[in-house]
Amino acid sequence: MDQIDDYITDPKFAAIISNLDAEKCIRRTVYTLLPENTMADAKEMMRKRKISGIPIVNKNRELKGIISIEDIIISLEEGNLDDPIEKHMTTHLVTLNNNDSMSTILKKFLTYSYGRFPVVDDDNKVVGVVTKGDLALSILQQFGNIYLHYKKRDETLTFDKDMHTLENLDQDQCFTFAIENEHIDSAGEGSARMKKFLQSKGFQRDIIQKASISAYEAEVNVVIHGGGKGVIKLFTTPEIIFLFVEDSGPGIKDIDLAMKEGWSTASDEVREHGFGAGMGLPNMRRYADKLVILSDENGTKVEMLFIIDPHKKLPEGGEEPEGTG
Amino acid sequence: MQIKEIAKILEAEIIYIPDDFDRDITRVAASDLMSDVLADTGEFKLLLTGLNTQQVVRTALIMDLPGVVIVRGKVPNEKTVQMAKENEIPLLATKKTLFTCSALLFNAGLKGVDEFLHTRE
């Protein structure tokens, strides 16, 4: 007995067991008989339903006893199949409660040698049954799910890290451009190249525009505010475009203010080039489906996610508008 | 409307128009703020601007605009012209002011992009 307790109370196992859903092992379709039914009725029900035990209930579905396949065998041997069930049923009952946790259920199975337990509610009415087979199957299935879940989570986490380094990804779907520009006049080359890259991959025109405009604004920001040195990284799948623009500038002092349209700290020279009007981050927010800005005194990272609408179809011959490119 | 017809209306100098350029122009945006121009993607629009820097052509390139008209008698610098040619973006220059150009093109039946301006809260 101590051994069983050891297992169930071991924090390692307890944590795993507490994650298992007890409901999943409870069979809710329960075949029952009344105490006045005969042993022959029980035998027929077991044969027809392929079950090895039947809870015996009164007219209010309150649990009165249980008949197992062993009881039927004894009845057959003794030739008393016509007896009412109540004469032979087990009345020393060990039950599970409807609200029992998985560890309580496991403990019952490990403590008693029964192959099944009726499940009753607080009024002792039968609401389900758990067999050893149900229990084993449900645990196996749930462990399978947990494993799958952990594996998936692991993949997601690794993928998230890879998206920032572009390592371990299909390089064919990756684009990188190093921004080295101290003058606003030539800012935007990376975005223009990125746009060509997206066009070469056959993306829809509107998503190319959204991503390119956002990259352009981010690139201009790197030149205006970020000290002119930075990087544009892009990763695509058929479902998403992930855009990451990073600089090693002094950081954004007040992101809330920077998100406001019309707020800017740009110089007159920058304004003379048509930027610095306080529309950069608001434009990125306008176009990106997800925008994350991380900024401190070591630099600014802008992450943008563009989700490709799978319902939009490419017209034949691609999306390239005539007269450009 | 074809870009050559627009050049005629604005009495503009054709700095560059790609061969066989025949995109139909129906809308116009007039602005010196490139971020304002970048704030809507509803329709390809001709860009009228008082700026003459590379960024006007870059904006046109990023947004697939069918052309740029530099107003108020400004002359685009060499790099701007070169970029327009490399990317096959029509580039015109006119002595007329932004207001006059806008009015002339509006009277000729071209529309603005007002209905495409959208904000995301």
In whole angstroms, the N-to-C terminal distance of chain B is 35 Å
Q: Can you list the strand order of the major beta sheet of chain B?
A: 1-5-4-3-2
Individual helix count of chain A: 11
Q: Strand pairing plus helix content of chain B: what structural class?
A: alpha/beta
Mean pLDDT of chain B: 92
Oligomer: heterodimer
DSSP strand tally of chain B: 5
State the end-to-end CA separation of chain A. 78 Å
What characteristics describe this protein?
heterodimer, A: 325 residues, alpha+beta, five-stranded antiparallel sheet, three-stranded mixed sheet, 11 helices, 10 strands, rod-shaped, disordered C terminus, B: 121 residues, alpha/beta, five-stranded mixed sheet, 5 helices, 5 strands, globular
Please characterize this protein's 3D structure.
The complex is a heterodimer of chains A (325) and B (121). In chain A, 40% of the residues lie in helices and 19% in strands. Chain A contains eleven helices and ten strands. Chain A has helices at residues 2-9, 11-18, 39-49, 69-78, 102-111, 132-165, 189-200, 205-224, 255-258, 268-272, 280-287, and strands at 53-57, 63-68, 96-97, 116-120, 126-131, 174-180, 229-236, 240-247, 290-296, 299-307. In chain A, strands 6-7-8-10-9 form a five-stranded antiparallel β-sheet, with helices on both faces. In chain A, strands 3-4-5 form a three-stranded mixed β-sheet. In chain A, helix 7 (189-200) runs antiparallel to helix 8 (205-224) and helix 8 packs antiparallel against helix 11 (280-287). Chain A starts with a helix and ends in an 18-residue tail after the last strand. In chain A, 34% of the residues are buried. Chain B is built from five helices and five strands, in the order αββαβαβαβα. Chain B starts with a helix and ends in a 14-residue tail after the last helix. In chain B, helix 3 (54-63) packs parallel to helix 4. In chain B, strands 1-5-4-3-2 form a five-stranded mixed β-sheet, with helices on both faces. Chain B has 121 residues and is α/β, with parallel strands linked by helices. Chain B has helices at 3-9, 34-37, 54-63, 78-86, 98-107; strands at 13-16, 28-30, 46-49, 68-70, 91-93. In chain B, helix 3 links the parallel strand 3 and strand 4 (68-70). The A-B interface holds A 184-188, 191-192, 195, 205-206, 209-210, 212-213, 216-217, 261, 272-275, 277-280, 282-283, 285-287, 321-325 and B 18, 21-23, 32-39, 41, 44, 49, 51, 53-56, 58-59, 61-64, 66, 79, 87-89, 118-120.
